[in-house]
């Protein structure tokens, strides 16, 4: 499993970005093959971001490219600068079921 983390340090409204993401890029990601989960977080003080999980590395890379296009087109009024992006293999995954 692979994870993509996007962190924005200067957002005007994390709540509004989350609302738009849920009905926008969230739906695109949900339809992607190998999609495992998408979470948006508010770190406080204008910091926000997302964490997305995929089955494999290539799917994660492809989805991140789609997300970046969507972000620039749909959130330009809410973000300053580029996000910090981290993509990597998940080495440990724990859930309440396992």
How would you characterize this protein structure?
With 98 residues, the chain is an alpha+beta fold. The protein has a single domain, classed as 2-Layer Sandwich (Alpha-Beta Plaits). It is 35% helix and 32% strand. The chain is built from 3 helices and 4 strands; from the N terminus they run E-H-H-E-E-H-E. It has helices at 14-23, 25-30, 57-74; strands at 2-8, 35-44, 47-54, 84-89. The protein has a 4-stranded antiparallel β-sheet. Strand 2 and strand 3 form a beta hairpin. The protein is globular and about 40 Å long. The relative contact order is 0.31.
The helix content, as a percent range, equals 25-40%
Summarize the main sheet. Answer: 4 strands, antiparallel
Strand content: 25-35%
Would you identify the regions where 5 or more consecutive residues have pLDDT less than 50?
Answer: none
Strand order of the largest sheet: 2-3-1-4
Please report the total strand number as a whole number: 4
Radius of gyration: 13 Å
**Remind me, CATH topology?**
Alpha-Beta Plaits
When the domains are counted, the total is: 1
In terms of quaternary structure, what is this?
A: single chain
| Shape by Cα distribution | globular
Structural class: alpha+beta
Instruction: Write the element-wise H/E pattern from the N-terminal end onward.
Output: EHHEEHE
CATH class group: Alpha Beta
Mean pLDDT: 93
What's the end-to-end separation, in Å?
A: 16 Å
Output the number of helix runs. Answer: 3
CATH architecture label name:
2-Layer Sandwich
Organism: Microvirga brassicacearum
Protein name: Antibiotic biosynthesis monooxygenase
